[in-house]
Structure formats: structure tokens, C-alpha cells
Amino acid sequence: MPILIVADVIIDPLIASNLESIGLSGLIEEKQKSKYKAAVEQLKRRKDSHLVDIVIIFIIVAMSMSFILNLEDLDTVDAFAKWSMILKNNEPQLTYAGWWFCNCR
What we know:
Helix content: over 70%
Oligomer: single chain
Largest sheet: 2 strands, antiparallel
Structural class: mainly alpha
Number of helices: 5
Order of helices and strands: HHHHEEH
Strand order of the largest sheet: 1-2
């Protein structure tokens, strides 16, 4: 989630600059400029909508809860081995994901 916040700070000015450049470049005919300006305003309203933030948070919570509720399934060797371990020379070895999971608990 923090990367989305950082990306928002970096990307917002770039998008605003590009939209302004498109509007001033002559790419849009005079008779279409009012539609373009209306579309830009609609985009700004949607970008600043809290609905998108709520949906993202809901998805994160739902995925986290799904993972937490299914942790007991990780006790079986097959379920855990699918993503956390590989066999190398018939020896179990942690994958990067398995290493992260085991060290971050």
C-alpha cells in the first residue's frame, strides 16, 4: 500500500502536465476542446474519489483475512511446499517467498 501513496505523489504532477500539454498542443480541434476539458474534469473527480481508496482497502483486507483464515492449511506439507519450498537434491530448500514468510512471522 505505501508504494501506491508514493506513486500517487510522483505520477499526479506528471499526468497533470501531460494533460495540459495535450490541451495546448493543438492536437485537439477547437470544437472538441470543451469535451476534452469536461473529460479532464471528470477524470480529476474520479481520481479524488474516496470510493477507489475504499475498494482497494477492502480488497487488501479480504485477501489478508483469506490468507489468515487458511493458515491452518499451511501445516500440511503439500500446501506449504507449493510456494515456500522446493526440493533440491532431494533436500527441501526455502524459496524467497518461504524465506520471507518464515522470517517475517
